[in-house]
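Hello Y.,

Per our agreement to keep a running log of every chain we model this quarter, I'm adding this entry. I've kept the format consistent with earlier entries: sequence first, then predicted structure.
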Amino acid sequence: MITQRSIDDLTFRINGACIEVHKIIGPGLLESVYHKCLEEELKLREISFKSQLKIPVTYKSKELFCDFFCDFLIEDCIVVELKAVSEINDIHRAQILNYINLMKKPKGILINFNVKNLMHQGQETFVNDYYRMLL
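Predicted structure for the entry above:
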């Protein structure tokens, strides 16, 4: 059962994995490099995940087949989207919000590895308001 406490604990573990990747390889690389490194770190920490998960898109009650993928779905409840950009902007925030809404997941984490300090500059969390009421 998903509880607020389990989501908070998992968020802490995900952030720890991201910090470890950033500490070891630093900023300035391509997003694909961080993606592969985070896959390895999540495996080492025994955190279950799906990578490059196809996101279902429904329009007027019809499922559409789009090439629309999120970077990670962690333990079937937290969506993680990676970036390696000079700064996070509103389109990135809209992207993660759309992902958590379309996938009906309670939380999303947006990680930008192209920063000096990951936790102070490179991480934002988003909550699906619908699920906030259920927890």
